[in-house]
UniProtKB/TrEMBL annotation:
Keywords: Membrane, Transmembrane, Transmembrane helix. The chain crosses the membrane at residues 39-56, 63-82. This is DUF3325 family protein.
Length: 87
């Protein structure tokens, strides 16, 4: 049960890094430096996929990996609006 949770946390952390490196992010005054944050995010995404593939079947792992990314990338901008008090 530890490996699926690790895959979930790695995927969310990678999505946060990728989101915070974008110029239109709403959490920080200035985005994170593009090269290190995006490289780290991509590396964490691949590591999360490897964790998922070691526990689930390939189809299940890729589907869950993509679904978590969709959820994270769609809620991160909304959370920044709620944090600012615009929501």
């Amino acid at each position: 049960m530890l490996i699926p949770m690790l895959a979930l946390l790695l995927t969310v952390a990678a999505c946060v890094l990728l989101y915070l490196s974008h110029r239109h992010q709403g959490w920080l005054r200035q985005p994170l430096p593009a090269w290190p944050a995006r490289a780290s995010g991509a590396g964490l995404l691949l590591l999360a996929l490897a964790c998922g593939l070691s526990y689930y079947s390939p189809l299940t792992a890729v589907c869950a990996w993509l679904m978590v990314q969709m959820l994270a990338f769609s809620t991160l901008p909304l959370l920044s609006l709620l944090r600012r008090g615009h929501g």
